[in-house]
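Retry 2 of 3 after timeout on previous attempt. Resubmitting C-alpha cells to design endpoint.
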C-alpha cells in the first residue's frame, strides 16, 4: 500500500512539474517573440566554449573531437555534372523503385536544385522552395526536399521536419538566420548550409515551407534494437554505413544508426527507406524513467527529484507535441542527442530553449542516449527488438 501511494505521489509531482514546465515554455516562446519579431542578424555568431570531453561524437558522425580551430568545409553546390570516377552510362541510366511512378537517373537524383519525387502521392504538391530552394540564391540553390526529402522524414544526419508545428518550424529558420542555432561541433557542414539557406529565404518562402511540411502526416521509419554488439561501420557525410551484417563491435554506449538498405537510401535517396538504430542494452528502460519521470525515485518512502524534468511535461504524454511544442516520438535518436547537446552547450539558443537548457543541464551522454533511444522507440507502438549480447 505504501509503495502504491508513493508511486502515485511521484506521478503527481511529475505532473505538477510538467504543468510548470509547459507554462514556462509557453512564456519563453512568447518572450522570444516568434519569427516575426526575432532579433536581426548581426552577421557574426557569438563564441561558445564547448566541452568536447562530454561530446557524444557518434551523434555528429565523427570518431574524434575537433582540433583547435578546425571547422567545416562548405558543402559542394548541387550539380548535374557527371562524376569523372564513375561510368557515364551508369550515371545517366534511368532507375525505378517499387511502387513509384518515377524514373530518374543518378544525375537527376543528385541534383539538389531540382528535387526528384519518387512518391508524389505521399505529400502535397511541392512548392518552389521545397523543389528548388530560395529563389534569390544564384549559386548553391537547393530545395528543402533534397536533404529533408519530399515527405519531410529526413535522415539521421539532418532533421525530420514532417508534421512540425508551422510556428515552431518558422522559428527554427529565424534562429538559423539570426545566429541563434548552430552545431556544437564546428565540423558539421550541413548546419552551415542550413544557415545560408535560411538567410536567403524570404518570409513568404519560410511560411510556405512551414505550411508544406506541417501538412504531412508523420510516418516514422526508425527500428530500435537493443544490443551490446553492432556491425562495423564507415562514416560517409556524417552518416554511419555498415560494412558487414555481423554484429562484432562493442556498442560502447553509442547509438549507431544505419540505413536498412544502403543502396535505396544512399544511391536512390528513397524516402521510404528505413533506418536501424542500435542502442545500448538497458537504455530503453533507463530512457523511459527519464522521459516519463525525469529520473525521480522513491528512497525510504520519500520522493527524490531526478536530474531532469519529464519530457512528457512539454511534449505530451505520447511525445507527439502540444501546441507549438514539437513532436519528438519516433524521430532519429542521433538527431535528438545532437539537439540535447547543442542546447546544453549553448550553441542552440532562441525561443523556448532557455527552459530546455535548464532541463538538459545535468544530463550526461549516457542519459542523452537513453532518452533518445526511448523516444525513438515510441512510435509506432512497440517497434523494439531486444537481442541481448548476441548477433
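Retry 2 succeeded. Sequence:
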Amino acid at each position: 500500500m505504501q509503495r502504491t501511494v508513493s508511486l502515485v505521489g511521484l506521478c503527481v509531482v511529475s505532473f505538477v512539474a510538467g504543468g510548470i514546465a509547459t507554462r514556462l515554455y509557453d512564456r519563453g516562446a512568447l518572450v522570444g517573440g516568434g519569427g516575426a519579431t526575432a532579433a536581426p542578424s548581426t552577421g557574426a555568431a557569438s563564441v561558445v566554449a564547448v566541452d568536447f570531453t562530454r561530446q557524444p561524437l557518434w551523434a555528429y558522425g565523427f570518431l574524434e573531437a575537433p582540433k583547435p580551430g578546425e571547422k567545416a568545409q562548405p558543402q559542394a553546390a548541387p550539380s548535374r555534372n557527371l562524376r569523372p570516377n564513375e561510368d557515364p552510362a551508369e550515371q545517366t541510366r534511368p532507375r525505378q523503385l517499387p511502387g513509384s511512378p518515377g524514373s530518374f537517373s543518378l544525375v537527376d537524383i543528385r541534383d539538389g536544385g531540382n528535387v526528384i519525387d519518387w512518391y508524389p502521392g505521399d505529400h502535397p504538391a511541392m512548392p518552389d522552395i521545397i523543389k528548388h530552394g530560395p529563389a534569390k540564391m544564384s549559386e548553391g540553390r537547393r530545395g528543402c526536399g533534397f536533404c529533408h526529402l519530399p515527405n519531410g522524414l529526413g535522415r539521421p544526419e539532418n532533421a525530420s521536419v514532417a508534421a512540425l508545428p508551422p510556428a515552431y518550424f518558422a522559428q527554427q529558420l529565424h534562429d538559423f538566420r539570426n545566429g541563434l542555432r548552430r552545431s556544437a561541433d564546428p565540423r558539421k557542414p550541413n548546419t552551415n548550409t542550413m544557415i545560408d539557406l535560411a538567410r536567403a529565404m524570404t518570409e513568404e518562402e519560410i511560411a510556405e515551407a512551414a505550411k508544406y511540411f506541417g501538412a504531412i502526416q508523420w510516418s516514422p521509419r526508425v527500428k530500435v534494437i537493443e544490443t551490446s554488439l553492432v556491425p562495423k561501420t564507415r562514416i560517409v557525410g556524417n552518416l554511419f554505413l555498415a560494412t558487414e551484417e555481423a554484429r562484432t563491435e562493442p556498442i560502447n554506449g553509442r547509438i549507431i544508426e544505419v540505413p536498412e538498405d544502403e543502396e535505396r537510401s544512399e544511391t536512390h535517396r528513397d524516402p521510404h527507406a528505413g533506418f536501424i538504430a542500435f542502442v545500448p542494452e538497458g537504455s530503453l528502460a533507463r530512457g523511459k524513467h527519464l522521459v516519463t519521470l525525469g529520473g525521480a525515485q522513491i528512497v525510504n518512502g520519500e520522493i527524490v527529484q531526478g536530474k531532469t524534468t519529464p519530457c512528457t511535461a512539454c511534449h505530451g504524454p505520447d511525445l507527439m507535441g502540444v501546441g507549438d511544442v514539437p513532436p519528438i516520438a519516433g524521430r532519429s535518436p542521433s538527431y535528438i542527442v545532437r539537439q540535447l547537446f547543442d542546447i546544453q552547450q549553448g550553441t542552440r539558443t532562441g525561443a523556448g530553449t532557455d527552459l530546455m537548457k535548464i532541463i538538459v543541464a545535468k544530463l550526461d551522454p549516457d542519459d542523452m542516449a537513453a532518452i533518445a533511444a526511448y523516444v525513438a522507440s515510441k512510435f509506432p507502438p512497440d517497434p523494439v527488438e531486444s537481442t541481448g549480447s548476441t548477433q
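Attempt log closed. Residues 264 and 270 are 5 Å apart (CA to CA).
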